[in-house]
UniProtKB/TrEMBL annotation:
The lineage of its organism: Bacteria, Pseudomonadati, Pseudomonadota, Gammaproteobacteria, Lysobacterales. Residues 602-639 are annotated as: Disordered. The gene is edd. The keyword Iron applies. Its cofactor is [4Fe-4S] cluster. Coiled coil: none annotated. Residues 406-598 form the Dihydroxy-acid/6-phosphogluconate dehydratase C-terminal domain. This is Phosphogluconate dehydratase. Its EC number is 4.2.1.12.
Length: 639
């Protein structure tokens, strides 16, 4: 089907905008790849160090001819429920590698912090920049010139974007992402939210709250609400970087194990040593980035990705901005209602049709580019994985009808005709609002400002009964430069409780909100931020503000002359506890704006004028062999 002209226009605009940066990126990775498999550039001493710890079988293979070697980059730790299942994956990957005639090594580990643990705590100040640390750690892992492809074991918030950014720095390598799957369904998310709001009102005990939280987050696997972690998975499938239908298969099940093994086989199938070379740097083009944004918006996914995917795109030499998100949202119907923009969790979403159903609807409606993927094309992502005899996976055509129209719907009958994200413009700058989870009657708030520089100040005002009936909380000094842009989800129970009382409340902030937030209208990621002299610093308590998410307006109603005379108010936040924060001072100083991806590292490619081969003639022992496709011009071939 012909691509929707609105999606095509945005894609073409991104392509034109990115001509120079994309060319530099492709020249860089193609120069790295043109010299052949990496181990051909290693001296004997280098190579001996590289396989010294391997067993005899793997060492003999690596010492001999052209044996594909897979690098494993893992975010395993056993504090994060989503990453706990990865503990034994390296053993499985090495076993499958040997079965297909290859080898595999853990190239390195990357940190993986949990926003659920640090929410509202000082540690949240490290959260956003952990993405850039993960990107750098991924690059370190892949820097040893030992690998023909990589698998990335990561699933949660900043981890997947960081792994993507780091992998794209080695874009000549094929890279396959392997999800771990969600935990089984616990208590309904609505019940959890209700207890949180009663606790905020002083009507529930800590013991009651802990009991309900423990019943919600209860086992290995990702949290089951549709936040940043699970949005990652849908976006990766829409980009063709992980196996079709693999996102929401629970850990510890036979199908999960079969999919994990199949992902390893596929990574070996697409190296430059075979006939089907598919490097990540060529797969991730402007069409793949647009696909990811469409998938995010059609499912009501996390606003965090309006920052992360700007950074991911830039790492591939592609330049996108919030206007692109805004225009894609206007063309993209809302096809899913998963908590927080519905009652279902991701297990219910999967049972109703899930990613396979949604991607087929988008393709058939011309809203998704049919691009090359790690397995073939996007049409492969309209097929469901099933367990076959012998423990392998077979893919069958996905259901043509939704199994629950309260959870997923066809493109011909969406929940809404808009993807649920708006760019807000006005005299406070540019910000974003996610409205897919906000009821229509709450999407416009006209109320006085209550200015705070710390979320605790709002809770204190509530306890003192000092808050107006209707108000817009203006939370400043929460941007990347100020304190690392922590999420402000800890305000959601209080604001949600006040909204339930019939009061008109909203939030305006230069910080982030959690991917789990939604019911309270919020203008987030406001740029420029207060710490960079942004006009949010001029707002005073009592100023009337209009927040209209339907019209895309955020305005403070102050006389123009008075507005110009005002100075930026200083940050009144108490000095932060260290907890490692001092180590990220350089990141805060270097960070770009939210709309620029809040990057605190450089990702811009510099194409080499003359690709270098570092081998000396006596050490060029790794012969690619005649007719090897790695020696030919690159071309992605659809299966």
């Amino acid at each position: 089907m012909t691509i929707d002209p609105r999606i095509a226009a945005v894609t073409e605009r991104i392509r034109r905008r990115s001509v120079d940066t994309r060319r530099a990126y492709l020249e860089m990775i193609d120069a790295a790849r043109a010299r052949g498999p990496s181990r051909g550039r290693l001296s004997c001493a280098n190579l001996a160090h590289g396989f010294a710890a391997c067993g005899p079988e793997d060492k003999a293979a690596l010492k001999g001819g052209v044996t594909p070697n897979l690098g494993i980059v893992t975010a395993y730790n056993d504090m994060l429920s989503a990453h706990h299942p990865y503990e034994h994956y390296p053993e499985v990957i090495r076993r499958v590698a040997r079965e297909v005639g290859g080898t595999a090594q853990v190239a390195g580990g990357v940190p993986a912090m949990c926003d659920g643990v640090t929410q509202g705590r000082p540690g949240m100040d490290l959260s956003l920049f952990s993405r850039d640390v993960i990107a750098q750690a991924t690059a370190i892992a892949l820097s040893h010139d030992m690998f023909d492809a990589a698998v990335c074991l990561g699933i949660c918030d900043k981890i997947v974007p960081g792994l993507l950014i780091g992998s794209l720095a080695f874009g000549q390598l094929p890279v396959v992402f392997v999800p771990g799957g969600p935990m089984p369904t616990g208590i309904p998310n609505k019940k959890k939210a209700e207890v949180r709001e009663r606790y905020a009102a002083g009507e529930a005990t800590r013991e009651e709250l802990l009991e309900v939280e423990s019943a919600s987050y209860h086992s290995p696997g990702t949290c089951t609400f549709y936040g940043t972690a699970n949005s990652n998975q849908v976006m990766l499938e829409a980009m063709g970087l992980q196996l079709p239908g693999s996102s929401f298969v629970n850990p510890g099940t036979p199908l999960r194990s079969a999919l994990d093994a199949e992902a390893v086989r596929q990574a070996f199938a697409i190296t430059a040593l075979g006939e089907n070379y598919r490097p990540i740097g060529h797969l991730v083009d402007e069409r793949a980035i647009v696909n990811a944004v469409v998938a995010l918006l059609t499912t009501g996914g996390s606003t965090n990705h309006t920052i992360h995917w700007v950074a991911v795109a830039r790492a591939a030499g592609i330049l996108i901005d919030w206007d692109d998100f805004d225009e894609i949202a206007a063309a993209t119907p809302l096809l899913a209602r998963v908590y927080p923009n519905g009652e279902a969790d991701v297990n219910h979403f999967e049972a109703a049709g899930g990613t396979v159903f949604v991607l087929r609807e988008l393709l058939d409606a011309g809203l998704l580019h049919d691009i090359p993927s790690i397995v073939g094309s996007m049409r492969d992502y309209t097929r469901d994985p099933k367990l076959a005899e012998g423990g392998r996976v077979r893919w069958v055509d996905g259901a043509r009808e939704s199994a629950d129209r309260d959870v997923v719907r066809p493109a011909s009958d969406p929940f809404e005709h808009h993807g649920g994200l708006r760019v807000l413009r006005g005299n406070l700058g540019r910000s974003l609002a996610k409205i897919s989870a906000v009821k229509p009657q709450h999407r416009r708030v006209h109320a006085p400002a209550v200015v705070i520089d710390d979320p605790q100040q709002l809770r204190d005002l509530h306890k003192q009964r000092a808050l107006p009936d209707d108000f817009i909380a203006v939370l400043r000094y929460q941007g990347p430069t100020a304190n690392g842009m922590p999420e402000q989800h800890s305000l959601t129970p209080l604001l949600g409780m006040l909204q339930n009382q019939g009061r008109h409340v909203a939030l305006v902030t230069d910080g982030r909100m959690s991917g789990a937030s939604g019911k309270v209208p919020s203008a987030i990621h406001l740029t420029p931020e207060a710490a960079s002299g942004g006009p949010i610093g001029r707002v005073r308590s009592g100023d009337m503000i209009l927040l209209d998410t339907e019209a895309g307006v955020l305005e403070v109603e102050v006389d123009a002359a008075e507005w110009e005379r005002r100075e930026i108010a200083p940050d009144s936040t108490p000095t932060a506890l260290d907890i490692g924060r001092v180590l990220f001072g350089g990141n805060r100083r270097l960070a770009g704006s939210a709309e620029e991806g809040a990057l605190s590292i450089s990702v811009d490619a510099v194409a080499p004028d003359h690709p270098r081969d570092d081998r000396t003639p006596s050490e060029a022992t790794y012969d690619m062999g005649p007719g090897n496709p790695a020696a030919a011009d690159f071309e992605v071939r659809d299966q």
